[in-house]
Recover the amino acids of this structure.
């Protein structure tokens, strides 16, 4: 038997989502293998599933692009004047500089991450059709671009918006399907 980690309990990722059975049925029915669903509820399921998958599986690393900013301390050179430098007869130029502490000699520091174009499109679709859940979508965006990104340690403390958003998408899909 598979053991469930804490964050997997009652999550779609752990196959124990609130509407797990319905979610799986609707997904199989509405989301084609190709990358574009025909119905809006299928499209929403596809978007929410992709965001959730990348969050749990890759720490959302495929949903955002890193933005690097030049280090203010060394102006991007990665090195600083060595204050302990004492000129001597041997021409040791490299002693004149030391690696910048601030950026470890890299010249750039990690800035905030930016949503990828693909993620931007999914976020837009979700907000457009689920305005009542737009705060959850915003929290998802925050989790992708915020400081806690890239957590391969699988400590998914900020997974709530993904789960609640999926509940909302499934509810939307159930209602849409009733109309047909
Ligand atoms: Zn620097």
């Amino acid at each position: 038997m598979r053991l469930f980690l804490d964050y997997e309990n009652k999550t779609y990722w752990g196959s124990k989502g609130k509407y797990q059975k319905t979610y799986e049925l609707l997904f199989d029915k509405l989301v084609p293998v190709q990358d574009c669903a025909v119905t809006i509820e299928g499209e929403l399921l596809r978007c929410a599933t992709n965001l959730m998958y990348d969050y749990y599986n890759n720490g959302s690393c495929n949903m955002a692009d890193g933005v690097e900013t030049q280090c203010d301390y060394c102006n991007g050179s990665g090195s600083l004047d060595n204050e302990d430098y004492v000129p001597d007869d041997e021409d040791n130029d490299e002693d004149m500089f030391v690696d910048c502490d601030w950026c470890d000699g890299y010249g750039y520091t990690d800035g905030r991450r930016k949503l990828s174009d693909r993620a931007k499109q999914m976020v837009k679709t979700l907000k457009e059709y689920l305005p009542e859940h737009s705060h959850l979508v915003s929290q998802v965006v925050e989790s992708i671009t915020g400081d806690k990104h890239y957590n391969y340690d699988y400590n998914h403390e900020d997974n709530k918006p993904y789960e609640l958003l999926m509940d909302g998408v499934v509810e939307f899909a159930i209602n849409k399907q009733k109309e047909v």
Notes: The beta strands are 64-65, 68-70, 79-81, 97-99, 108-110, 114-115. The chain has a mean pLDDT of 86. The chain has two domains: 6-66+114-179, 68-110. Helices lie at 20-30, 40-58, 117-129, 134-145, 160-179.
